[in-house]
């Protein structure tokens, strides 16, 4: 199973996976019935979650809604630390994750807009370098696992800062590695070399411990929130949350 999932996510473009993968995984979910772990995004329980990743992580992917560890953590953070589920908010979700789309779209307090340059799930076709909305348009912006793919991550963050309303906030997650400084070399265009240096064939940089400082160059205010470390270990195990994952909580600068 690990090798199959690793091969699929490595070589099949994300835009195609988004269209069909959930149908196959829900069939697979029949073989994972149990109550050892519970996905707090969709509420379904299993004996364990599916493995996921190019170097497959055990107990990672919910076969019902496709939430990963980071998605379950973000959902819990929104529930416990924000007014996301109760306050009237206009939300821009860049490169929206399948596990969130329908749930957020049906929240009665949200004016929820999704945007992406190629995802078939997004309602607005847009380039994150030039977000097609006016200044001060959104209360909340989500942009997860996008910046490691784009040509100019600082410009993308400038655009997020621009469209956020005064007092607005966002969550901007990316893979962050145990490096002192972000590794980037725009002269590298060979997919195999990008995979070797940056982790994936479609990554153009590998973020280090300077991630928050780097994003703040755009004008955004970036807070490193260690919410996961405040949770009970039993809850972490129940939902299979990521260990030591920092939530990068941003606000308009």
Automatic annotation (TrEMBL):
One of its GO terms (molecular function) is S-adenosylmethionine-dependent methyltransferase activity. Pfam families: Methyltransf_11. Keywords: Methyltransferase, Transferase. GO terms for biological process: methylation. Coiled coil: none annotated. It comes from the Bacteria. Signal peptide: none annotated. Residues 121-171 form the Methyltransferase type domain. InterPro entries: Methyltransf_11, SAM-dependent_MTases_sf. This is Methyltransferase family protein.
């Amino acid at each position: 199973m690990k090798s199959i999932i690793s091969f699929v996510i490595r070589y099949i473009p994300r835009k195609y996976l988004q269209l069909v993968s959930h149908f196959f995984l829900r069939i697979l979910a029949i073989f994972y019935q149990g109550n050892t772990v519970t996905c707090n995004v969709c509420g379904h329980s299993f004996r364990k979650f599916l493995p996921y990743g190019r170097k497959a992580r055990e107990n990672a992917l919910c076969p019902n809604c496709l939430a990963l560890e980071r998605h379950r953590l973000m959902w819990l953070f929104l529930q416990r630390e924000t007014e996301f589920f109760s306050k009237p908010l206009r939300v821009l979700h860049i490169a929206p994750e399948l596990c969130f789309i329908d749930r957020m779209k049906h929240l009665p307090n949200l004016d929820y807009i999704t945007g992406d340059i190629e995802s078939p799930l997004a309602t607005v076709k847009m380039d994150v370098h030039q977000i097609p909305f006016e200044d001060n348009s959104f209360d909340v912006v989500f942009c997860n696992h996008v910046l490691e793919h784009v040509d100019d991550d600082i410009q993308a963050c400038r655009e997020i800062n621009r469209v956020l309303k005064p007092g607005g906030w966002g969550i901007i997650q990316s893979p962050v590695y145990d490096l002192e400084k972000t590794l980037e070399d725009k002269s590298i265009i060979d997919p195999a070399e990008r995979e070797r240096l940056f982790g994936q064939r479609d990554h153009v940089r590998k973020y280090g411990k300077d991630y928050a400082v780097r994003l703040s160059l755009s004008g955004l205010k970036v807070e490193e929130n260690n919410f996961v470390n405040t949770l009970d270990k039993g809850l972490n195990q129940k939902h299979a949350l990521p260990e030591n994952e920092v939530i990068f909580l941003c606000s308009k600068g």
